[in-house]
Automatic annotation (TrEMBL):
GO molecular function terms listed in the Swiss-Prot or TrEMBL record: 4 iron, 4 sulfur cluster binding; FMN binding; metal ion binding; NAD binding; NADH dehydrogenase (ubiquinone) activity; oxidoreductase activity; quinone binding
Coiled coil: none
Record text on subunit structure and interactions: Composed of 13 different subunits. Subunits NuoCD, E, F, and G constitute the peripheral sector of the complex.
Organism expressing this protein natively: Pseudomonas saxonica
UniProt name for this protein: NADH-quinone oxidoreductase subunit F
Length: 451
């Protein structure tokens, strides 16, 4: 699988007007370094923000554009920026880039960091100016070794050009930027667990409130944004609110473009920048090329392993948060996975739940104990040793680990695909239920109240 694959996009010329995130990409996949980036209007938006815009005006522009977080939660970025304190005496504050991309089937941030590192740096520079943060960190997934090398080189290039460090662009504004590689924990994608890890602590989510905007890194005001989110900022500042809103398809409630993709046994797996509101069918058939010969689409996930399964008849849904919500799940990261008709759903879910159980921080009981329990039940069903009532128990766990029942969103995301798989493919789970043999005690089962 290639990190950038354009399929029918070969017939659609990528330009700054239609593809703000990817128009600068090289055809050979090599990184765009500083000289080439600046030749392609790189840092022009930063110069505009520093020379012509007040800091509060930058925040308002991002808010008016309707930019939402691209990490999966979709919280309005400008609103999040507005939570940072206005008190000028609080002069120590931080900007964190969440680059801990560990959602299975998702690799969009990796492409941006490996091939367009200066786009992320420019986005962070403008954001730091708006938020009055003097120091920034890119918290990078440790396994992204190539991205780490490219980002560190780009940071040094920006420093040498006077775009980072002291008195940037003669404005009197100082901003230092560091690349910090994590130790490999999925839970660090949760912003407060990321903050704990950056401080050298165990990566547990923190209780909120207080939110990071008030009490973040080392107790100081902190803003955490995703890689793709920050990479949208230069185009918004450079081209304006009306242009940004015009990019999405009719019917979409989200604005701008989104990096979307398809993995699995499709003919052309890859990643594309597309307008919000494109249908999943267009993404699947026109860009990913449909299923490979000999395979049939059984179901699909719209945005990572933590989103619910959908059926082929759901492909006409528009790819934006509200469009995917209409068919019963979340858009997540926007990188879909096709499941072919040779896959047993029980085995697939057992594999997924093993991952989520292993990556639980263990802080709260429902997640710590509930996810391994689901794995135990799924393994029994997979081996044909499930007991009557196991499916109901699994559904009970889906309810007990749902939104609002656990300390963070890890467990709700983990059980969403499980609940949808049972909903659409229950006979495959029922096939693994064996009648209890006389004299053989059943496996230990959780007590599910009100299941």
């Amino acid at each position: 699988m290639t990190l950038t694959s354009f399929g029918p996009a070969n017939l659609i010329k990528r330009s700054a007007e239609t593809h703000p995130l990817t128009w600068r990409l090289r055809d050979d996949g090599e990184p765009v370094w500083l000289d080439e980036y600046q030749a392609k209007d790189g840092y022009a938006a930063a110069r505009k923000a520093f020379a012509d815009m007040a800091q509060d005006d930058i925040v308002q522009t991002v808010k008016d554009a309707g930019l939402k977080g691209r990490g999966g939660a979709g919280f309005p970025t400008g609103v999040k920026w507005g939570l940072m304190p206005k008190d000028e005496s609080m002069n120590i504050r931080y900007l964190l880039c969440n680059a801990d991309e560990m959602e299975p089937n998702t690799w969009k941030d990796r492409m941006l960091m490996e091939q367009l590192p200066h786009l992320l740096i420019e986005g962070m520079l403008i954001s730091a100016r708006a938020l009055k943060t003097y120091r920034g960190y890119i918290f990078l997934r440790g396994e992204y070794t190539t991205a780490a090398v490219h980002l560190r080189r780009a940071v040094e290039e920006a420093k040498a050009a006077g775009l980072l460090g002291k008195n940037i662009l003669g404005s009197g504004f100082d901003f230092e930027l560091f690349v910090h590689t994590g130790a490999g924990r999925y839970i660090c994608g949760e912003e407060t667990a990321l903050i704990n890890s950056l401080e050298g602590r165990r990566a547990n989510p923190r209780s909120k409130p207080p939110f990071p905007a008030a009490v973040g890194v080392w107790g100081k005001p902190t803003c955490v944004n995703n890689v793709e989110t920050l990479c949208n900022v230069p185009a918004i500042i450079g081209n304006g609110v009306d242009w940004y809103k015009s990019l999405a398809r009719e019917g979409s409630e989200d604005h701008g473009t989104k990096l979307m993709g398809f993995s699995g046994k499709v003919k052309n797996p890859g990643l594309w920048e597309l307008p919000f509101g494109v249908t999943a069918r267009e993404l699947f058939e026109d860009y990913a090329g449909g299923m490979r010969d000999g395979f049939k689409l059984k179901c699909w996930q719209p945005g990572g392993a933590g989103t619910g399964f959908l059926l082929p008849e759901h492909l006409d849904a528009q790819m934006y948060a509200g469009g995917i919500a209409k068919v019963g799940t979340r858009m997540g990261t926007g990188l879909a996975m096709a499941v072919d008709d040779s896959v047993n759903m029980v085995s697939l879910l057992r594999n997924m739940e093993q991952f989520f159980a292993r990556e639980s921080c263990g802080f709260c009981t429902p997640c710590r104990d509930g996810l391994p329990w689901s794995v135990k039940l799924l393994m029994a069903i997979e081996n044909g040793e499930g007991q009557p009532g196991d499916i109901e128990t699994l559904l009970g766990l889906v309810g007990f680990l749902g939104p609002g029942k656990t300390f963070c969103a890890h467990a709700p995301g983990a059980v969403e695909p499980l609940g949808s798989a049972i909903k659409y493919f229950r006979p495959e789970f029922e096939a693994g239920i064996a009648q209890a043999k006389p004299g053989v005690p059943p496996l230990a089962r959780p007590i599910v109240i009100g299941a």
